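Example record used in the benchmark description.
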Amino acid sequence: MHLYCPLCEKKTQVDYISHYKNQNPLFEERDLYKCLECNLIFIHPMPTQKDLDLYYKTVWTTSDEASIVYQIQANERVKYIARHISLFSGMRILDIGSGHGLLLDALKKNGFTDFTIYATDPSPENMERLKKRGIQVFPDIESIGDQQFDLVFICFVLEHIPDPVPFLSLILKHVKKRGHVFIDLPECDDTFKLFLEPHVTVYTLESLDVLAKKVGLIPIHSTGYGQRRELLIAENERLEIIKKIISVWSTIEDRIFSALSPEKAEANKRRKLYGYYKFDDEGTGRWWIRAIFKKEP
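Model output (C-alpha cells):
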C-alpha cells in the first residue's frame, strides 16, 4: 500500500500500524501507518490545518496551575542544552509552543539571566499567561517578522504538526547562522498511550534525523530519555483498579507529608516524580527524545 508521507513529502510504501485512539470527533475514523522509507508513523487521513487550528483554539485547554512535571522538564532541558553548547550573555531565545512559559524560570534557575526570550503559542489562554509574565508572544511563526534568534526551543510540538518539513524550514529562517535548535518530543508514544489525540505524527530518533537532514540541520547530540517504554506499555496493561489504588495511595502520601513537614513536601513529590518519569535517565527505548542541532552556516 502507498500513501503520502508528510516527512518524505511523496507517496511511499507504508505498513498499517493500528486504529487511531481518540476522544474528539475530529480524529474519528482514522488510522496510523508507518512509512517504510523514513520510519515516520502518521495519521491517515490527515486532519486539515484549518481543523487542527480550530481544535487548539476551542478544545485544547491547559490548567492555570502549571504541573510540577512541566517545571522539571523545562529545567532538565536547560541542563541538557548547557552540557552540549555554550549559553552566552545576550542570547535571543525563541520558545515555539511555549505553553506556560516555564522555560523562562528554568533558564534563571540554572544561572542564565542575560537573555531575551520570545514565544509563540496558538492558545489564546496561553498567550495571556505569557504576556502577564512579560514574554513577548506571537500567535504563530508567520507573525514574528524578520527577527533572528540564537537558540530556538521546539518542545512537544512536532508531533502536532501535519507538515513537518515546511514547518521546520520556516522556523530556520529565524535562526541565526551557526545558531542552534533544540527539539524535545515523545518517541513511539502510540505504543503506550491510551489516547494519542491530538498527535498526528509519531517519531523515532531515526525519523527525527531524517527531518533534520532534510532542512539542513547539523546534529550536535541526540538521545532517548525518561522511563523505559517497555514499562510504560506494561503499566497500561494493568487492571484499572490496581492503577487507581496506586494513584489514591500516592495522593494520601503527599497529603501526609504536607501535613507533617510542609517544607519537605515538594522535595518528596519531586523525588517520586524523578523515580517514575526518569527525567535525567538517558538511553534507548525511552519515553521521549531530545536533540540539539546547529544551523548550517
